[in-house]
Amino acid sequence: MTELVAKNVDSADLVIIGNGIAGLTAAVEARRLAPERRVVIITEQSHPTINTPALKQFAIGKLSREQLLAYPAGTEQAQFIHVINARAEEIHAQDRYITLKGGRGFGYGELLIATGSTPTGLPPDMPGADFDGVLTLHRLYDYLDLRRRLGEVEEAVVIGGGAHAIETVMSLLYWGIRVHWLLRGDTFLSRMLDRPASDMVLDSIQRAGARVYTETEALGIVGRVGTVAGVVTNQQELIPCQLVLICTGTTAMTSLARHCDLKMKHKQGILVDDQLRTSVPHIYAAGDVAAIKDPQTGLYAPRAQWYAAVSQGRMAASVMTGSSPAEELGIPWHATRLGSLSMLTVGNVLQWQDTTTTLTDSSKNSYRRIAVIDDRLVGYLSLGPAQPDSLAIKRIIEEGLSIRDIQKSLLKGTFDARRYFSRRRTYSAQRLVTTGKLPVAEELEKRMQAIRNQALQPQANRLEEQMRLARALLAPDPVATTNFFERNTDEDLQLFADPFVAAPVELERFREQRENMSVAAPVGASADWLTAERGFPTESKRPVKTSHIVESTLVKTPETARAGRSPSGSLWSYSSPLPAVKVNKPETPGAATSSVPDTQQRGRKGQFKAPLQKNGKQRPFDAYPSSSLWSYNEKKRMKGH
Amino acid sequence: MLRTGLSKRGSKTVSLHKTGPQVAQELVACIGCNECLLACPALDEAITIDVLNRETLSGPISTPVARFARSCFQCGACVAPCPVGLSREAMMMWLKVRLLRSGWG
Q: Which residue from A271, A361, A387, A471 could staple onto A342, CB 3.0 to 4.6 Å apart?
């Protein structure tokens, strides 16, 4: 018996190293796909998986610690995922086991490396880098540290030229801290933004109150009795400050690739094919550590972003369990908020400047740049007060749709993705009907029958139907409404409401378009040596799965909810009779006259906010036993009165 | 795409909805920053974003989330603050559809 237990613990079918979002997503997804396999996560991290992009909101007190959790607490136990807190040190790929710290071995069937990244930090020989108050922001503990310090800081220096740095700058400004931002180059995010876009961002940050120092590097940090007092720059300047934040980017944690007995290819990250396989059999990599191929350029690079990590985790799970992945990794996509501006980059805007047509537009306080080959979009960059429908644009590029009709609206930022896709769907449905050519997928036949029946109704009949629908929605006519709802049987709802339904719509055409695009796009320095040496196909032969737009319908109202109410046909009219907004104003005396930033005033829900002090500054968050404003006020009232 | 029929002005259809796959994709892209919930005028519960995301498309719907879905009146205040450009409003719509189908009304 004891032998059996020991055997069970010392090996697992699926071993995942790292419990970042890629690792945990892979584990949960693998559990769903293969309920009978043993899934083990090995991690050094002593806290559960958190929403790392939300750490800055956490540091400035907009979120509580519990709200950081990416999955509800106890998900691992509930999903029967065994978590081992240890450091994985070596991979013995020939015998398929890893060694943990202390020499303990652990066997694996399939191994996923999701170790993430480490911050690059300051050069190790930088004088003063070990003073108290020099923080490299990367992990939860760094942000906990920052959160504790914020209350006593008046001036801070932020070093780094990426999106991470700018988000940090904005967080500090939110707390009313004077911020000095040091950039090594003279533009911001030089690989993703062009000069006008970068200038626009720097401008808006300056307007928000930060001091921006371009082409400036820190030479050393000056301290007083062990704590930071200032930063000396290469412009012969001393910037006094109490806090130095380092946001100089991240490096993939490739140490496991170096400590593997078979040669695992790695450069900036562990090189993987389009199904996340490394160059060693049975070993996969996902998340910040994996360098995946950009399908447009053919170059391998890690994608250190949340969305990329989640989708890679899902893909790794399906490849490791032997099921076919639901979606492809696609092209790079990055959306974030830079101060008051929303930034979106999709695809490659700055590549192939001599072969693509580049169009720019800088109206209405915003900037957009699109790169087009023929009538296909290959890159999109947008900066402005509002974020466009970013995933829709990603889809347009990935599917290689013609943008002839929407080029102007894309450029002007008025693109309405919902209308565009719904119209496309309507056309394709019409085409299916008029040509009589339907995709003959076996399991889809029944679903298609419903659509066909609906669409093949005589024209006059359909018009009448539409008029009745319109009447039902405009006027509360009980008879018409009932008829309408009766027409939508439960089977129809089942058909339309399944969110993961995918069907090949115009599959051939999409494939053709994609091929055309990849031929038209000149490929840069390709990394085909990876393929050549090991001989695995970088392009899988599995069928391209095209997501199908599922049309939704109105839903039948339950009888109980409809009783005593006029049926207006709209879904949100069935809300509870309670008032939707509960006005609970904090009774802090200084709140009304204080000069806090607008964002603080606007928040309505006290449970996420610390109360305001008389001078308009927020109190340090740790002053309260719970993050709830109401409970605090209650207590105060009970004490005082 | 939900066609609600004719608007009062004329023959224009009103688009309210995103398709299921789109909503599923947006849920994957959500970074959990909570900005949408901070901007929400109808939220009166201690809901965390991970629970809301998890219950939007599948699984059982817990009582606080159901209550929140019922008090949501689709004002769209959650869409503008999203740093990654997702529409929480469409996700709430799906949650409501599921809620109605599960008989919670």
A: A387
For a pLDDT cut of 70, what percent of chain A falls above it? 64
Q: Which residue of A has its CA nearest to B38?
A: A603
Q: What is the residue whose two structure tokens read 């320095």?
A: A525
Q: What pLDDT shows up at residue A474?
A: 55
A49-69 per-position pLDDT tens digit: 999 988 988 998 888 888 888
Chain A residues in contact with B58 by the CB 8 A cut-off are 499
Secondary structure (DSSP) of B49-94: HHHHHHHHHSSPPPHHHHHHHHH-----TTTTT-TT---HHHHHHH
Mind telling me how many Å the CA of A550 is from chain B's nearest CA? Answer: 5
Q: Which of B38, B89, B96 to mutate to test the interface with A (most CBs of A within 10 A)?
A: B38
> Do residues A367 and A352 touch, judged by C-beta distance below 8 A?
no
Nearest to A167 by CA among A57, A50, A70: A57
pTM beyond 0.80, yes or no: no
Q: Quick one: tokens of A586?
A: 């904090």
Summarised one tens digit per residue, pLDDT across range A139-188 is 999 999 999 999 889 999 999 988 889 999 999 999 899 999 999 888 88
How many Cα atoms are found within 13 Å in the side-chain-facing hemisphere of A248?
17
B51 sits in the region (left: phi over 0; alpha: psi -120 to 50; else beta) called alpha
Question: What is this model's ipTM?
Answer: 0.79
- Chain A contacts in chain B segment 22-61 (CB below 8 A): 22-26, 28-29, 31-35, 37-44, 46, 48-51, 54, 57-58
- A54: which chain B residues are within 8 Å (Cβ-Cβ)? 31-34
Given CB atoms, is B66 within the 8 Å cutoff of chain A?
A: no
Q: φ, ψ for residue A58 (rounded to 5)?
A: -65, -45
Closest approach of A19 to chain B, Cα-based (Å):
16
pLDDT, one tens digit per residue, over A222-273 is: 999 999 999 999 999 999 999 999 999 899 999 999 999 999 999 889 999 8
Facing B85 at nearest CB: one of A70, A387, A419: A387
Closest CA to A11 of A111, A103, A85: A111
Cβ contact B40–A72 (<8 Å): no
| Pairwise CA distance, residues A256 & A516, whole Å | 39
Determine the 3-state secondary structure of A364 from DSSP.
Answer: coil
CB distance B32–A51 less than 8 Å? yes
Given its phi and psi angles, is residue A227 left (phi above 0), alpha (psi -120 to 50 degrees) or beta? Answer: beta
Chain B nearest CA to A551, separation (Å): 6
Distance from CA of A264 to the nearest CA of B (A): 30
pLDDT category of residue A452 using cuts at 50, 70 and 90: very low
- Contact across the interface for B50 and A72, Cβ inside 8 Å: yes
Q: Which two tokens stand for residue A281?
A: 């059999």
Say what percent of chain B tops pLDDT 70.
82
A414's tokens = 């008025």
- The H or E element containing residue A219 is strand A218-224
If you compute the radius of gyration of chain B from its CA atoms, what whole number of angstroms results? 14
Q: Is the CB of residue B41 less than 8 Å from the CB of residue A580?
A: yes
- Chain A nearest-CA distance from B30, in A, is 7
